[in-house]
């Protein structure tokens, strides 16, 4: 008797009583293929997906950690890919620099290149933007994350000013009126995120800031969300903490993010950020990539996901099941696909 193949919802726990005691032991035939996909979520929140006793039950797995999973689901990157690739939609360094405005810091000791006299190109014409009090934008709604993002930000803010428009941490500011209008969030809060276009509001705000905080919910390999891609696309240097292998994913051949993993303490990170904010030439170096082709590593990522468009989890399982029906090794079918799409 032949039992049907299944695709597990990896967002639900892969329990022993269901997947091992019942499905695997009683309702699995030689042509039954199992797969699961953990899409847009970090494995750190779903530990059952990394349990070998359970993950080995599955013939095909999709997830963001390449050391664990065979296939990588479509990443958050592709929401902003046209602004990241070497295309006309990508902002040039000059466009990014023209979007920056004077910073109305309450600390007169702070030095920002944006507050220096304008040059002949007319940069920084908009000097009346009163809501920008620091060089750094922070917007987050989830205050209890495995990365301990809020705790890190509290420590960082002891050494550098941050404009905080989120739900977490100290000194929360009201959103500027034009941002509320852009995202359609009048009379709503961050608790109502699903009811308005928060991404449009964040992009409109981030383009004027020198830096944007981009700390992920978890610090796991290959899990990189819109927190990085939004500021990178709109021209605000991401201050990043997240995937340990983040540099495998970046489009730039030179530095284009401030990687908090490189600093021993938040104080050290703050000192570096202040140096970049004060030095226009140094700041521009983080945007040099905008006028260059993407890195070879990044092009390999694009090639991988272009090829992966031909292979859904459902189709791979179907093909493997057909191989088993023909008394052929289904693993050979999967190996052929893995060879076709390659790695990055």
UniProtKB/TrEMBL annotation:
GO terms for molecular function: alpha-(1->3)-fucosyltransferase activity. Its EC number is 2.4.1.-. GO terms for cellular component: Golgi cisterna membrane. Keywords: Glycoprotein, Glycosyltransferase, Golgi apparatus, Membrane, Signal-anchor, Transferase, Transmembrane, Transmembrane helix. Transmembrane segments: none annotated. Residues 134-327 form the Fucosyltransferase C-terminal domain. Belongs to the glycosyltransferase 10 family. It is found in: Endomembrane system; Golgi apparatus, Golgi stack membrane. It is an enzyme of class 2 (transferase). Pathway: Protein modification; protein glycosylation. It is a single-pass type II membrane protein. This is Fucosyltransferase. It comes from the Eukaryota.
């Amino acid at each position: 008797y032949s039992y049907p193949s299944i695709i597990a919802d990896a967002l639900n726990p892969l329990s022993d009583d269901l997947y091992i005691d019942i499905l695997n032991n009683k309702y699995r035939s030689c042509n039954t293929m199992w797969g699961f996909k953990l899409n847009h979520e970090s494995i750190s929140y779903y530990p059952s997906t990394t349990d070998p006793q359970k993950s080995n039950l599955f013939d095909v797995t999709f997830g963001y950690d390449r050391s664990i999973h065979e296939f990588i689901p479509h990443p958050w990157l592709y929401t902003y890919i046209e602004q990241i690739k070497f295309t006309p939609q990508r902002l040039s360094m000059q466009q990014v620099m023209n979007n920056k405005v004077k910073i109305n810091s309450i600390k007169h000791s702070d030095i920002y290149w944006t507050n220096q006299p304008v040059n002949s190109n007319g940069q920084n014409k908009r000097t009346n933007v009163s809501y920008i009090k620091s060089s750094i934008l922070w917007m987050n709604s989830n205050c209890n994350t495995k990365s301990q993002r809020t705790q890190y930000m509290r420590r960082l803010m002891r050494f550098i000013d941050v404009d905080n428009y989120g739900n977490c941490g100290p000194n929360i500011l009201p959103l500027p009126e034009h941002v509320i209008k852009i995202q359609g969030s009048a009379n709503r809060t961050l608790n109502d995120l699903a009811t308005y276009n928060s991404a449009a509001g964040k992009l409109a705000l981030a383009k004027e800031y020198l830096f944007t905080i981009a700390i992920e919910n978890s610090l796991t390999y290959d899990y990189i969300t819109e927190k990085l891609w939004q500021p990178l696309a709109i021209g605000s240097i991401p201050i990043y903490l997240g995937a340990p292998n983040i540099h495998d994913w970046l489009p730039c051949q030179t530095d284009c993010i401030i990687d908090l993993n490189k600093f021993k303490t938040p104080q050290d990170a703050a000192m570096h950020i202040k140096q970049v904010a004060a030095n226009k030439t140094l700041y521009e170096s983080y945007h040099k990539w905008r006028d260059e082709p993407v890195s070879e590593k990044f092009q390999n990522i694009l090639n991988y996901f272009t090829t992966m468009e031909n292979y859904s989890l459902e189709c791979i399982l179907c093909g493997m099941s057909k191989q088993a029906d023909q008394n052929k090794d289904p693993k050979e079918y999967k190996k052929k696909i893995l060879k076709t799409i390659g790695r990055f």
